[in-house]
Amino acid sequence: MTKVAAIQMCSSHLVEENLKSAAKWINEAAQNHARLVVLPEMFAIMGQMPTDKVIVKEIFGHGMIQDFLSEQAKKNDIWIVGGTIPIACENENKVKAACLVFDNNGKCVARYDKIHLFDVVLSENEVYRESDTTKPGDKCVVVDTPFGKLGLAVCYDVRFPELFRSLFNKGAEIFALPSAFTVPTGEAHWELLARSRAVENFSYVIGACQGGMHSSGRKTFGHSIIVEPWGTLADKMTGVESGIIYTNMNLKKVYEARNSIPIGAHQKIFSVCV
Questions:
Q1: Active site residues
Q2: CB-based contact 111:134 (threshold 8 Å)
Q3: Of the residues 16, 95, 194, 266, which has the maximum number of CB atoms within 10 A of its CB?
């Protein structure tokens, strides 16, 4: 078994402040013997304006945020899923929302760029246009780890089961799901969606969330969650407070579920993952 952790934060527009907070929680998780830690979406910056993340974007492989993740992974001898951070792309006015995975030696071993962007109208007063400042990715990513095959997804991706089935078909046994759900959509759908993606693929889901009132005035739902392959809850936050949830992940539960109900062999519609 492997102890895994999901960290919940309330990030601000101040990168250094957010990194200091993340370091505290990562260190605590490591001291509690977690071997894999998942940070929330936009853990390093939740801007006062959507363009703030473009100002602090980094070139892939270089930058303060990436150095921080590398150092924390090596220092604590743990694997880290670095939520999302803004990585430069060919459009100077946009970034990629990149989820980076660092191994316990501090090496970046995987990068997933968020595919599904949150362009929605929730009410007259709550409108989001993530695509104004973010360029979507176009590749699904599964990375081999000492703890199992880890599939990467981010927040709004959870509404698209075909992505998770593509990850399943690439061998994923665990889904890391950094998120920053809004309050109305979180209240209505967050747990339901996370549990659905777990049970329909008989995989673990580690959902690390933003929670609380941010410096922009935006509110996020929190309620980080870890779901087992049978859809049962291993652990969850009950509110928006910052903190950590854990579980001892046992891949035997993945194999038992998939052997008893062989969804991989029975599926008739196959996704193509580039």
A1: 41, 114, 155
A2: no
A3: 194
